[in-house]
Each structure stands twice: as structure tokens, then as C-alpha cells.
Write a structure and sequence with these properties.
Layout lengths: L6 E2 L2 E9 L2 E2 L9 H4 L21 H9 L8 E8 L5 E5 L11 H13 L6 E7 L2 E5 L8 H13 L4 E8 L14 H4 L16 E7 L8 E4 L9 E9 L5 E8 L4 E9 L5 E6 L3 H15 L3 E8 L9 E6 L3 H9 L4 H13 L9 H15 L7 E2 L11 E2 L1 H12 L4 H6 L23 E8 L2 E9 L5 E9 L5 H16 L6
Parallel strand pairs: 2-12, 7-8, 8-15, 11-13
Antiparallel strand pairs: 1-2, 2-3, 4-5, 4-21, 6-7, 6-16, 9-10, 9-14, 12-13, 17-18, 19-20, 20-21
């Protein structure tokens, strides 16, 4: 997940939302990467020296962890199996529903890979004739200003110097840009940015906060030339003395295009960069494309954004394409990027349209279900509300996750899917977990975190045993996220220490 940094050494950053001027409250963890990328697992190599255990000893060893007094009130779901042939080594509440958080991305990326293929690319096209130029966005989550400059240069090479009417078409996805069940603090954060057909820079913009003279408000500047009209800033900050703890809070005011920034920054503090979602992605895209055209020496007389899903009959003048889907799913799973997951969900839907005006997101969810059920995943074992896991209406059993990991491991896409996952102690949201332990480099797994929720599902290449597949889910937790992760990691470490016994 992309994220706003909520904690760091010497400072605290908060993102709150106001309803009619009153704060709704700040969650300790509102999205996975707020803590995943900045904390390490409690488990260390010294605490977990390598030892061997027999499969028959595994249930008692796991129960010893899960049944600790401080963990007994938590809702645990666990399923551990050998990959092939399938043998269950441990199970607890494996058929019950849990809120999965970002483990939902395992379903989304698996179905996208199986349905679309690893070489699938998302194309952004520019069409035109008789002075009218039309750009059609198709929801490429990787599109940046560099690709817009590329499109502009392609038009210039065709001797186009003037555009009478520029149209950017934002209707390829027929779906709400924000899921109605996402929590308010999520939709005011960069990891909950709106998802539409005209995507640029993952639909986020940045502002920089820099100290000024002592006692003066912090200087707030936008790093994007068109961001100022997206938000109005209410600056309630202060430059504090050297050595003072720097902290600030950012409030979105519901129903208004305003951000209220409060707090203080030490006078000797380096500038802070904060990402916020774009309020009007279509207009944001249009302004950036116009700038790219002007920089290429192409003038634009009139311009507009339209919401239309109609096909264009004009000839294609220019295009850019996303990286292949194999890279897009890696960019989804490794950092747990919500935005990419939601774009892929809608792409799944729009590539399976039967009639116009179908909801792309809802159709994408149906495709995920159908794809996995046809391969043998129990259709009653999971209920999906979105493609990323931000919604708390996702309900998933450990069995459904293990089944999904099992069935895709038997497909031709198995290797591509596997390397898209974070690797323990090495990459993605697991890079700071399992360092200097037996699990480092041999666990490929997807993390998941919301307030009160911690999940981990994936594969283990047990060096003295067989390849394993597992899902560990914790709900209804009042314990610190790092502590719960440490307990989950202890269980995973047990799996790396399995050996064959007589």
C-alpha cells in the first residue's frame, strides 16, 4: 500500500477527518503499510535459534503460542497444509469468516493473472482528426507524467502543432471511484485515493511542510503545479524551538475541499512531505496533459473532460502501454498497493463486459469468484466487497486463502504469482520481518493489516521438509499490531523447522 507516514523518530503525524468541524477520531492503524514499512517483527534470530520439530509436534507447539493468556481473547484462524499432495498439518477455525485486510489482494491478483495472462498490458490511446484530439484512459495505474510527455511527443512527430478541441475521456471504468464501505480516514489518505479511468501518478499529490522563523507558521507548498486548486489549506501550524518534538495533524473537512493542518515542526527539522488524494482526477489529468502538450510545442484552444464509455471511431494517433501484468501484480503485492489492486479489479470487470454500463468493480468481483470456484476453491468460503482489502465487509476463511494458493500453484502462472509476493526479510512488506531467522528468504507471503486485524498467507520452502502453504488470520485484537505480528511470525518460524520423522 502507498501510505502517509503516521509515525517516525521524533515526530508524530496524524490524519483525521472532521464532520461539520468535529473530528471523527484517529485510528492507531487504518491501513497496512502505515506500520508494516516502519516496524520490524519482534521475532529475531537470537530469540528463535534453529531447531527441528516433527509434524506430530507442530499442533502442540502452535497451541502453546496461540493459547497464551494475552492472546486467548483474540479470534484466530489458521490452516497449514503441504502443497502437494495436500495434507493438513494444523487447523483452527479454518472454515470461519475473518476480515482479511490486504490478503484480499491474493484473490485479486490470482484471478487477474489467470484471466488476463502475464503479458497483458493496459493501453492509453490518443485518437483524432480535423483538429479534435481525444485521449481515452483505460485505468493504467502505472501512468505518470513521463507517459503523458511521451504521448505529446508522438503527436508532435506527426506534425501536430495545434489542437482545436482536446477531450480526455473518463468512462472506461463504470464504477464508483471510492468504495462506499471504506472508512472516512481511508478516503482522505493517499492509500485510499479514488480509482477512475484517467489515472495519473496514482491520483495523489504532495505538499511539503518546511520550518520558518521561530514562532511563525510552517511554510506549506505544493509539489504539483495544479494541486493548489484541488485543496484549500487552513494553516494552523507553528515553527517550534530546536529540539522540540515535531508533530502535526492533517484534517480533511467532509463536504469541503479543505485540509486543515495543525501542529508544530522544530526549526531545525528537515521538510516533511505528505501525500494526499486528488479530489478531481479527471480534471487533474487534463491539466497535466495540456501542460505536456504545451511543453511539446502544441497549443490547445479548448479542452474538456467527458464521462463516456463509447468507443472512438477516429484513427489512433499515439499510445502508451503499462508494464506487463506480471509486473503490475508484483507492484500490487510487494508493497500492498491498494490503488493497483482496485485498478486491476476494474480491469478484470471491463474486460468481461457483456453489455454497456455494467459496474466494472462489481463485475470484477464476480469474475474473481467464478475464476477461483471453477478451479476448485469453495465459493461459500469467501465474500469479497473490494479488490484491495480496505473494506471491512470482506469476509474470508483461512481455507479459501489456502485453496487459492494451492490452485494457482498448479497453473502455468505459478512461478510469476509466487515471485509477486513479499519475501521474508528481503522484499516488500516483509523486508523488515524475519531478518536473521531461518525464515529469511524462504517464506513468500502476503501481509494484511487493519485496526484489530493482522493476517499472513503464503508459502514456506521448509528446507528439511516439503513446501508448505499456510494462512494465519487474527481478528478482534486489542493488542499492538507489532506484538500480534510477532506471534504470527513465531508460528511461521515453526514451519521452517519441520523435518521428516520416523
Amino acid at each position: 500500500m502507498r501510505f502517509q507516514r503516521l509515525t517516525a523518530v521524533g515526530r508524530t503525524v496524524g490524519v483525521l477527518i472532521l464532520l461539520s468541524g468535529f473530528p471523527l477520531g484517529l485510528k492507531a492503524v487504518s491501513a497496512e503499510a502505515q506500520l508494516v514499512d516502519s516496524t520490524q517483527s519482534i521475532v529475531s534470530g537470537e530469540q528463535n535459534s534453529a531447531r527441528n520439530i516433527c509434524p506430530a509436534q507442530l499442533p502442540e507447539a502452535i497451541d502453546t503460542i496461540v493459547d497464551r493468556p494475552e492472546l486467548r481473547r483474540l479470534h484466530w484462524g489458521i490452516l497449514i497444509q503441504t502443497l502437494s499432495p495436500r495434507r493438513t498439518l494444523y487447523s483452527r477455525n479454518e472454515q470461519q469468516y475473518f476480515i482479511p485486510a490486504s490478503n484480499v489482494k491474493l484473490f485479486t491478483t490470482a484471478a487477474a493473472l489467470l484471466q488476463l495472462g502475464s503479458d497483458f498490458r493496459i493501453r492509453t490511446s490518443v485518437y483524432g482528426k480535423n483538429g479534435v484530439v481525444r485521449l481515452v484512459g483505460r485505468g493504467d495505474p502505472s501512468l505518470t507524467d513521463a507517459q503523458l510527455r511521451d504521448l505529446a511527443q508522438q503527436l508532435r512527430r506527426q506534425e501536430i502543432r495545434q489542437i482545436q478541441q482536446l477531450i480526455v475521456q473518463d468512462g472506461y471504468f463504470q464504477a464508483l471511484p471510492l468504495h462506499p464501505t471504506w472508512e472516512w480516514e481511508d478516503v482522505y489518505s493517499d492509500y485510499g485515493a479514488p480509482v477512475n479511468s484517467l489515472i495519473l501518478n496514482q491520483n495523489v499529490v504532495e505538499l511539503q511542510l518546511s520550518p520558518q522563523e521561530l514562532g511563525q507558521p510552517v511554510k506549506i507548498t505544493w509539489n504539483d503545479p495544479f494541486a493548489a486548486w484541488q485543496w484549500q489549506i487552513e494553516n494552523q501550524t507553528l515553527t517550534a524551538a530546536s529540539g522540540t518534538k515535531s508533530d502535526f495533524e492533517v484534517y480533511g473537512i467532509l463536504g469541503k475541499s479543505s485540509l486543515q493542518i495543525r501542529g508544530q515542526i522544530a526549526i531545525d527539522s528537515p521538510p516533511e512531505v505528505l501525500s494526499v488524494p486528488v479530489r478531481d482526477p479527471g480534471e487533474h489529468f487534463l491539466q497535466h496533459f495540456k501542460l505536456a502538450l504545451i511543453q511539446a510545442g502544441i497549443t490547445v484552444a479548448q479542452s474538456q473532460v467527458i464521462n463516456s464509455a463509447e468507443k472512438v471511431n477516429e484513427p489512433e494517433l499515439a499510445f502508451v502501454e503499462s508494464p506487463p501484468l506480471s509486473q503490475l501484480i508484483t507492484d500490487t503485492n510487494q508493497p500492498s498497493n491498494n490503488f493497483y489492486a482496485e485498478a486491476l479489479l476494474r480491469t478484470l470487470g471491463v474486460n468481461n463486459l457483456t453489455t454497456n454500463n455494467q459496474d466494472s468493480a462489481s463485475l470484477g468481483l464476480n469474475i474473481i469468484k467464478t475464476t477461483l470456484v471453477n478451479l476448485g476453491v469453495d465459493g461459500e468460503s469467501f465474500i469479497l466487497a473490494d479488490g484491495s482489502g480496505l473494506s471491512r465487509r470482506n469476509l474470508v476463511s483461512p481455507a479459501s486463502l489456502v485453496q487459492t494458493l494451492q490452485v494457482i500453484s498448479q497453473s502455468r502462472q505459478a512461478g510469476i504469482y509466487r515471485i509477486s509476493l513479499p519475501v521474508a526479510g528481503v522484499s516488500g512488506t516483509l523486508r523488515n520481518r524475519f531478518k536473521d531467522t531461518p525464515a529469511m528468504g524462504i517464506v513468500y507471503a502476503k501481509t494484511g493489516t487493519l485496526t484489530g486485524v493482522a493476517t499472513l498467507s503464503g508459502y514456506v520452502d521448509a528446507p528439511n521438509y516439503e513446501r508448505l502453504v499456510f494462512s494465519i488470520m487474527v481478528n478482534q485484537s486489542n493488542q499492538p499490531t507489532q506484538f500480534i505480528r510477532g506471534s504470527i511470525d513465531e508460528i511461521v518460524l515453526l514451519l521452517t523447522q519441520l523435518r521428516r520423522c520416523e
